[in-house]
Structure to design on (1211 residues):
């Protein structure tokens, strides 16, 4: 490990950077392996070890192997990129290592079988940015993910890291920094979309010397992992953004609140903090500017409600993470009663780029009111799941079809759920909606922290609402009556509807309760918690009515309302359903139509899901 | 000054006031559940929501936790507000169907019986108990546990609390009586017995000693006050609108120079537990007449409801036992307590008012009803069969089958009787208040073998004592009832007034005088003077320096008994008219 010298002035950073760049030969092959959580689950670390072992054994110990942050295309992991040509391989297994080294590293040839092949056009893509999944993306927040080793600050410095901090601290005053962020039009990426510059300005204007900033890394939405990937893959961009923000606000202490369920984010942030301190990028007199700032890492215990800013402040102080009534807002009275500014991970990660490339550049991206890009975690019934970063204003169609590759199994696209558990469902009819803060809210969804869950025709909207509500009932802190009792009652009504015990008036009662919970709850968890119900009622009222009046689940999901049978004409007798049935309720000879014994069927729906000939009918 | 509009009316608020504070000052009714004036607000129950229509983001906000701000326009009773409150109540009623406070509010807001899932909770999760413990009392013994609908009131790790001080504040603030401190804490809750109600109920550490107390103001019982015990709490100071609570106040010794003193220290009842045969202190249904008096009083612990202390049932049979300790030569007081016959007769009537079909028995030795119309009253009780009077003593009270068996002699009917009673009321002997001896010694007034204070003359000076200027009133002198006490007190008052309203005191001429030329200031005389008439007189020289302290006789107090003269070694004290020289002259004249 190199000796890290304190960077006492901007010139020291430039010197260090040129030394580092000089030490790296841009033409030498190197291997970058995605070591994000998704690819790790696919075995990326074994792959990393295998590459290193075989390279060393083959006398190629000068070829660098890097474990980088998440590349986003989690569906196809583990992902490997071979530099300098940036050849993109997906689904690489340890058994492929030998051919990659032999062909690509030694001879510059391509391993065709590992290239990405478009499922529709059957065209192969050689380079990462040629893959359709990446082609429509614009990676600002994820600028370094996939390129740098997140545990190596030097990688970040080579990628122009901390240039923005140096510029802010030595070339700008705090007001200029705030103006730049305001001019860029950056809005909070945590869900609210409050203008970040304005937020900083309010906090700066508060009297007193003791102020705090907090980075909200308590990403709790099921299926969302944008912030996680940033913290894991590019922790320094968050720290740099925080330091710039602290300078603008006049804070000298910052906190990063990360849930304990993110061990890699915690590890990489811890490492990053140490490295920053050793270079003097945190601590006293940063870049000789006289400005002092340090960051403490707080581990949260995984309560969704701690993502609410007052709940988070309580949690940082060791109290139960229950929000409190605002006003006073944290900008006036937050942590320890002092002015406190809280921004989400993605917001902080945007800050260095704005300073580095200028507010005008940033403001040129996106729509009139929503600037820059947004990272979405695209999951659900879509071919290419993963993290996508697109300019604000990109339509849902582009995200779902062009980037996501459409719906698997040639099924119908039904809706997309945006904004996490307390977001809303946007129906197929609005698929050309350009995604920005206002448009999503108008349509009954919300930006939230950027979850996008795609649903197909076999998704029951009552079931979806029930699922999210169940999550929110569990995650409600239970402090205020509307959220605690109201959500519980709504869940109980949804349960009875999905079980065929719905009664006339239930829809109206749900709407009444939903409006009440939205209007009366103490914090925004409750304030938005009714969205899944209200938005599905808005667009899919028919489905609710079918459940209540006809006791039918049109999508064939709600167990109590569904029976399965095999359409004899369509059944080829392949036997797949028989194999997957957990209760052994399916019988039939090979190549003969199968039958389902409803007496023993547990209605799990696996046969319905798996049948390739749509021969299993849900009624 | 903050200016805002509530229900169309302009209002002013001070910095730090909430919407609720301002509304209450204007007498605008806003319901609350999780709010308590002494505890910082939390805005959890959402019953106090009001509607902001302008001046801030429009919508519903909790009045208790929302600060008053300039330019706010607020509606406290709009349809939206009422609808929200109704829904809150419908939800809370579904959770806690038995909670009275919720039922009442729900009725007021026209709550409907919605098809909601019912629970059977007592707690509405207002969190007052947790907050009072943490933020007011201090130990933070209770806490929330769990999330969402699973949220509950608990202790850390659900263990019996070691930091709980057993103050019971949590139960006190709970609006739905859902808290039993015993669930949290191994320390038994310290209930402070209400002295005025004979300990039949409890009181708080800050309390008004008794109804119609003079002055009718609360006092703080330092021994039990949390603030004095732990330095915490201070809730009474927070809530007092007059800012009258001053924890630094100390007891003071007040010295006044007075011309007369009336002693009216009253009486108490002797403890009947010394007579084990009656079972007082052992069986809860055996009570004293004073306890019975509080039980049937409308201002008493039960609000006038008469119940058996053991099980709360109506006592269908009651037995009154007279002369418990009175007229007992051997193991009690030989005198008659004088008031018991009459109050027992009264108690039987009160009992009949409470229990119309009840049966009352009175065991007596003699009915002593000497007083105007007294005999008529007793006759009425007997004649109208309010109570059955049995002449005789009770030998034993013992429990049997949930009842108390009273075994006694019926000397008129002959033989032994046994009554199965629900309650037994004892009439213990009247004794002087404790501590009267010390007082008497201080005042130099006499007292008899029972500590009743002595009058100067039983017939001619019944309210005066032997010490001039000290008078007696009421039962400190002897057992007496109210009319007698009033009469005596009036007499004592006129005597005292007779003393202090004249410009000059008249006295007997035969009092002691000091010969200052020979007195050496030994003050032996001071010790023997029964009337506290010897004072200390400073002799000053021309520069005002004290040269000697000599005895001086207070002419108003001296009774001329001559005890000082006999004691004085320097023969400096003589009684006027009985000086040695005068006596010697008289003797020699006789013997000549």
């Amino acid at each position: 490990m190199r000796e890290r010298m304190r960077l006492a002035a901007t010139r020291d950073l430039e010197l260090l950077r040129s030394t580092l760049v000089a030490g790296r030969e841009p033409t030498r092959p190197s291997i970058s392996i995605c070591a994000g959580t998704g690819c790790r689950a696919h075995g990326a670390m074994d792959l990393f070890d295998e590459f290193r072992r075989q390279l060393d054994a083959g006398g190629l110990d000068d070829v660098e192997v890097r474990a980088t942050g998440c590349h986003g295309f989690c569906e196809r992991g583990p992902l490997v990129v071979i530099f300098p040509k940036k050849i993109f391989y997906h689904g690489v297994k340890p058994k492929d290592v030998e051919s990659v080294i032999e062909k690509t590293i030694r001879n510059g040839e391509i391993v065709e079988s590992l290239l990405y092949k478009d499922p529709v056009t059957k065209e192969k893509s050689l380079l990462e940015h040629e893959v359709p999944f990446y082609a429509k993306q614009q990676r600002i927040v994820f600028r370094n993910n996939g390129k740098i080793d997140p545990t190596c600050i030097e990688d970040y410095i080579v990628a122009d890291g901390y240039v923005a901090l140096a510029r802010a601290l030595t070339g700008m005053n705090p007001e200029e920094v705030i103006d730049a962020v305001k001019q860029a039009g950056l809005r909070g990426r945590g869900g609210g979309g409050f203008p970040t510059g304005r937020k900083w300005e309010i906090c700066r204007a508060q009297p007193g010397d003791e102020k705090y900033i907090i980075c909200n890394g308590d990403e709790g939405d099921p299926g969302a992992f944008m912030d996680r990937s940033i913290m894991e893959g590019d922790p320094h961009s968050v720290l740099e953004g925080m330091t710039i923000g602290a300078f603008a606000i006049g804070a000298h202490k910052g906190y990063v609140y990360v849930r304990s369920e993110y061990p890699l984010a915690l590890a990489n942030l811890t490492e990053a903090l140490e490295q920053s301190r050793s270079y003097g990028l945190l601590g006293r007199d940063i870049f000789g500017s006289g400005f002092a700032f340090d960051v403490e890492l707080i581990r949260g215990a995984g309560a969704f409600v701690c993502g609410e800013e007052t709940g988070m402040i309580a949690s940082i102080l060791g109290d139960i993470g229950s929000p409190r009534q605002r006003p006073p807002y944290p900008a006036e009275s937050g942590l320890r009663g002092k002015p406190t500014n809280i921004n989400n991970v993605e917001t902080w990660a945007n800050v260095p780029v704005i300073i580095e490339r200028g507010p005008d550049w940033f403001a040129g991206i996106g729509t009139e009111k929503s600037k820059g890009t947004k990272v979405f975690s695209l999951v659900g019934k879509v071919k290419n799941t993963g993290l996508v970063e697109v300019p604000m204003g990109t339509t849902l169609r582009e995200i779902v079809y062009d980037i996501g590759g459409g719906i698997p199994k040639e099924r119908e696209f039904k809706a997309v759920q945006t904004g996490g558990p307390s977001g809303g469902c946007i129906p197929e009819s609005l698929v050309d909606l350009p995604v920005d803060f206002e448009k999503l809210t108008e349509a009954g969804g919300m930006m939230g922290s950027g979850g996008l869950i795609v649903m197909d025709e076999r998704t029951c909207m009552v079931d979806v609402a029930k699922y999210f509500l169940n999550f929110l009932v569990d995650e409600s802190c239970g402090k205020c009556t509307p959220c605690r009792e109201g959500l519980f009652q709504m869940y109980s009504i949804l349960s009875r509807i999905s079980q065929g015990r719905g009664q006339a008036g239930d829809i109206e009662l749900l709407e009444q309760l939903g409006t009440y919970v939205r209007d009366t709850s103490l914090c925004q968890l409750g304030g938005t918690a009714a969205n899944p119900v209200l938005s599905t009622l808005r667009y899919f009222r028919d489905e609710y009515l079918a459940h209540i009046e006809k006791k039918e689940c049109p999508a064939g999901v709600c167990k109590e309302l569904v029976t399965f049978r095999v359409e004899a004409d369509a059944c080829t007798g392949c036997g797949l359903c028989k194999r997957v049935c957990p209760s052994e309720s399916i019988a039939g000879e090979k190549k003969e139509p199968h039958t389902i014994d409803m007496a023993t069927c547990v209605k799990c729906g696996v046969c319905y899901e798996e049948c390739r000939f749509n021969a299993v009918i849900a009624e | 000054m903050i200016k805002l509009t509530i229900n169309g009316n302009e209002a002013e608020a001070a910095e730090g006031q909430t919407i609720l504070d301002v509304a209450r000052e204007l007498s605008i009714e806003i319901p609350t559940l999780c709010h308590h004036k002494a505890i910082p607000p939390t805005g959890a129950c959402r019953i106090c929501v009001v509607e902001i229509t302008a001046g801030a983001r429009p919508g519903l906000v909790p009045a208790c936790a929302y600060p008053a701000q300039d330019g706010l326009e607020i509606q406290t009773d709009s349809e939206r507000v009422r609808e929200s409150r109704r829904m809150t109540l419908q939800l809370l009623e579904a959770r806690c169907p038995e909670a009275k406070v919720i039922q009442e509010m729900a009725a007021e807001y026209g709550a409907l019986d919605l098809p909601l899932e019912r629970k059977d909770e007592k707690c509405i999760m207002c969190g007052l108990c947790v907050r009072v413990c943490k933020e007011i009392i201090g130990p933070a013994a209770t806490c929330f546990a769990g999330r969402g609908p699973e949220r509950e009131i608990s202790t850390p790790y659900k263990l019996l609390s070691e930091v709980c001080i057993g103050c019971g504040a949590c139960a006190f603030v709970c609006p739905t009586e859902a808290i039993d401190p015993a669930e949290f804490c191994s320390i038994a809750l310290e209930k402070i017995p209400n002295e005025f109600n004979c300990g039949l109920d409890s009181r708080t550490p800050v309390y008004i000693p008794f109804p119609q107390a003079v002055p009718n103001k609360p006092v703080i019982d330092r021994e039990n006050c949390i603030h004095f015990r732990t330095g915490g709490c201070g809730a009474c100071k927070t809530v007092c609108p007059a800012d009258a609570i001053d924890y630094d106040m100390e007891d003071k010794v007040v010295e006044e120079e007075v011309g007369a003193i009336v002693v009216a220290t009253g009486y108490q009842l002797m403890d009947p537990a010394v007579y084990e045969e009656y079972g007082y202190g052992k069986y809860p249904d055996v009570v004293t007449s004073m306890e019975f008096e509080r039980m049937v009083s409308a201002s008493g612990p039960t609000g006038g409801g008469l119940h058996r202390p053991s099980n709360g049932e109506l006592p269908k049979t009651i037995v009154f036992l007279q002369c418990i300790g009175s007229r007992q030569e051997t193991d009690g007081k030989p005198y008659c307590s004088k008031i018991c016959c009459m109050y027992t007769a009264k108690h039987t009537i009160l009992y009949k008012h409470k229990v119309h079909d009840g049966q009352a028995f009175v065991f007596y030795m003699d009915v002593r009803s000497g007083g105007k119309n007294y005999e008529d009253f007793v006759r009425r009780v007997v004649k109208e069969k309010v109570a059955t009077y049995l002449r005789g003593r009770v030998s034993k009270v013992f429990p049997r089958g949930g009842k108390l068996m009273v075994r006694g002699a019926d000397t008129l009917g002959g033989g032994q009787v046994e009554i199965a009673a629900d309650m037994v009321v004892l009439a213990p002997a009247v004794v002087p208040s404790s501590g009267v001896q010390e007082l008497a010694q201080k005042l130099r007034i006499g007292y008899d073998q029972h500590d009743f204070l002595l009058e100067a003359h039983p017939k001619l000076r019944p309210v005066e004592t032997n010490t001039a200027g000290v008078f007696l009133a009421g039962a400190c002198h002897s057992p007496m009832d109210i009319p007698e006490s009033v009469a005596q007190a009036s007499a004592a008052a006129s005597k005292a007034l007779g003393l202090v309203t004249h410009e000059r005191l008249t006295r007997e001429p035969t009092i002691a005088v000091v010969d200052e030329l020979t007195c050496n200031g030994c003050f032996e005389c001071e010790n023997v003077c029964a009337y506290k008439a010897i004072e200390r007189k400073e002799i000053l020289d021309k520069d005002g320096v004290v040269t000697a302290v000599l005895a001086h006789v207070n002419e108003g107090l001296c009774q001329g008994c001559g005890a000082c003269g006999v004691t004085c070694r320097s023969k400096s004290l003589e009684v006027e008219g009985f000086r040695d020289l005068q006596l010697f002259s008289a003797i020699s004249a006789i013997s000549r």
